[in-house]
Design brief:
Layout: E1 8-13, H1 15-27, H2 32-37, E2 43-48, H3 50-65
Antiparallel strand pairs: 1-2
Length: 70
């Protein structure tokens, strides 16, 4: 899967934390829902847009749990 890009805003989620969680979700899609549910991001100056990140992670987790055979 390609790199995911989020908008950087004045106050948003820590970019390194988000990048690490996105990478983890892509490596282990079967655990995506649990990873997303267990994650809390730090809000920092110059971070990723919070609604964008939350929407992406929730859609990704939902897609991975909706796959046949799971």
């Amino acid at each position: 899967m390609g790199r995911v890009e989020f908008t950087v805003v004045l106050r948003g989620y820590d970019r390194a934390q988000v990048d690490a969680v996105v990478e983890q979700v892509h490596r282990d899609p079967a655990s995506a829902a649990k990873i997303v549910a267990d994650t809390t991001f730090t809000v920092v100056w110059g971070g990723y847009d919070r609604p964008q990140v939350e929407d992406y992670l929730h859609r990704t987790a939902a897609a991975d749990t909706d796959e046949p055979g799971r």
